[in-house]
Design goal:
Strand content: 15-25%
Strand order of the largest sheet: 3-7-6-11-5-12
Shape: globular
Largest sheet: 6 strands, mixed
CATH superfamily of the domain at 28-43 and 76-182: Peptidoglycan recognition protein-like
CATH topology of the domain at 28-43 and 76-182: Lysozyme-like
Order of helices and strands: EEEEEHHEEEEEEHEHH
Radius of gyration: 15 Å
Distance between the termini: 15 Å
CATH class of the domain at 28-43 and 76-182: Alpha Beta
Helix content: 10-25%
């Protein structure tokens, strides 16, 4: 897996440009990776609802839950589906709108310096082996491309927004990810 550094894109994957992005204050300060989970509707997998959310095209009448979130302007750099397929929404040198109010070791505005990766899943279900394998490959490629990143600079959304967020949740296997990153 490689990153086309000039474009800030992973090569060989789908790219769906989200309007929910802007310039980072400093493109040379990419120094953290935040892992999230997402399922739309909650607890359901597959379909194009996540795409629609990140592209500001979510139909509020398609599901009762969507009425609450259809007007949100959110994005992540990447989504890793349960199948292991990866979709990119925001180039890495751009700021995705994934972390919200957050703090990383006392540093506020985590969107400014982190890369947001959504895992298709939820807090109460295990993730798929293919997802972990792709996540590990993505993290390694990011660490190869961005000098301030290391495999130790990966946190969950719950770690940077405690009390407000719970993802990737208790079923995310951090030790398995660590093992894959060490290979």
């Amino acid at each position: 897996m490689q990153i086309e550094r000039q474009l800030g894109l992973l090569s060989g994957i789908e790219y769906h440009s989200s309007p929910n992005q802007d310039e980072r204050p400093r493109t040379d300060d990419i120094s953290g990776i935040v892992i999230h989970n997402i399922s739309l509707p909650p607890g359901e997998f597959g379909g194009g609802w996540i795409d629609d959310l990140f592209l500001n095209q979510l139909d509020p009448t398609a599901h009762p839950y969507f009425e609450q979130i259809a007007e949100l302007n959110v994005s992540a750099h990447l989504l890793i589906r349960r199948t292991g397929d990866v979709i990119q929404y925001v180039p890495f040198h751009q700021r995705a709108w994934h972390a919200g109010v957050s703090s990383w070791d006392g540093r506020e505005r985590c969107n400014d310096f982190t890369i947001g990766i959504e895992m298709e899943g939820c807090d109460d279900k295990t993730f798929e082996k293919e997802q972990y394998q792709q996540l590990a490959e993505v993290i390694k490629a990011l660490c190869d491309s961005y000098p301030k990143l290391t495999t130790k600079l990966v946190k969950g959304h719950q770690d940077i927004a405690p009390g407000r967020k719970t993802d990737p949740g208790p079923h995310f296997d951090w030790s398995y990810l660590t093992t894959l990153l060490a290979e």
